[in-house]
Amino acid sequence: MTFDPPTVAPRLIERSPSMSGAELVATLVPPRQFDSASFDSYRPDRDHPSQGEALAKIRTFAEGWKPARAGGFFGRGKKTVAPKPGIYLDGGFGVGKTHLLASLWHAAPGPKYFGTFIEYTALIGALGYANAVQQFAGAKLICIDEFELDDPGDTMLMTRFLGELVAKGTRLAATSNTPPNALGEGRFAASDFLREIQAIADRFEIVRIDGVDYRRRDIEGHAASFGDDAELESAVASRSTAGERVTLDDFDELVHHLGTVHPSRYIRLLEGVDAIAVRGVHPLTDQTDALRLVAFIDRVYDAQLSVLASGTPFDEVFAGDMLNGGYRKKYLRAVSRLIASATR
């Protein structure tokens, strides 16, 4: 069957997705670029030995699901020390934390779940706390990518949520979201995390991973941008003719529409799409709009979609003091992902 490109590109703002609780939970799997992630396919950077050490430690953590070995002669042999039920990978962007987390998920028995901190808090908000606990009851492993500490309310919500599940035998694996230029901040982030979840803190092993963001070696780089709307629209038409499913929206309309869709359903906005195009990108001044865009960009990046845009380079969309404020880590992660996703 041939694909007949539309004369007018479809628009994301025309989609108003709905999802059941079971459908929302079913989306909690590693992003598709990590479908085949494994411990063997992780390539530690020799210039940063902590990456190899992290690989060894998370391999050991994965051994926790295997039956315990019997002792030596008459059971008097040396006992194997069981790994802690939680492991926390603390490091900068693009050093392989998500690859290791996805590898652990693939190695673990089910039921198991994988999502970002934002995805879990959004899902709990959509389902309600009690229903969310019920949905995850019996999980063998919960992976939380980019655990965030900038929102005390969400952090404490996740603390309580994870605490209830750990008490019932669930094991946890989390990563931090330390920016690459925040020297020493990673260790403070780990300490803050442990203070917030003090009820289960002693059950976590902290593993530091150093390195350079493989997506963005130069922190001063920019996301690709078209010179004007006409050039962008021409690129959209060309891709559509080639068989790609490309959406085209005005930036302000898209940002407004994101406010009408629960973040847990952003993934459904992008269903069946190969690339998104956005006209008239400009810096945002409203923090609520900026945070919604961050959550949306996370879903775009996880789906490995190309981003085409005109106007301000997309990585400059977080204006004013946003990059110096309390949500700095969120915005830096989005910038890194936008630079990786933006194309011409």
Number of contiguous helices: 12
Measured between the Cα atoms of the first and last residue, the distance is 28 Å
Q: Which CATH architecture of the largest domain? A: 3-Layer(aba) Sandwich
Helix fraction by DSSP (H/I, runs of at least 4): 25-40%
Q: How would you spell out the order of helices and strands?
A: HHEHEHHEHEHEHEHHEHEH
Major pleated sheet:
5 strands, parallel
Q: Taking strands numbered 1, 2, ... along the chain, how are they ordered across the largest sheet? A: 2-3-4-1-5
Provide mean pLDDT, rounded: 82
Sum this structure up briefly.
With 344 residues, the protein is α/β, with parallel strands linked by helices.
What report would you give on this structure?
- The protein is of the alpha/beta class and 344 residues long.
- The relative contact order is 0.15.
- The chain has two domains: 31-209, P-loop containing nucleotide triphosphate hydrolases (Rossmann fold); 217-341, 3-Layer(aba) Sandwich (Rossmann fold).
- Helix 4 crosses helix 5 (129-136).
- The protein has helices at residues 21-26, 49-62, 97-107, 117-127, 129-136, 152-167, 185-196, 229-241, 251-258, 266-269, 287-302, 328-341, and strands at 86-91, 112-116, 141-145, 171-175, 204-209, 246-250, 275-281, 306-311.
- The strands form two sheets. Strands 2-3-4-1-5 form a five-stranded parallel sheet, with helices on both faces. Strands 6-7-8 form a three-stranded parallel sheet.
- The model is unreliable at 1-6 and 179-184 (pLDDT under 50).
- The chain is globular and about 60 Å long.
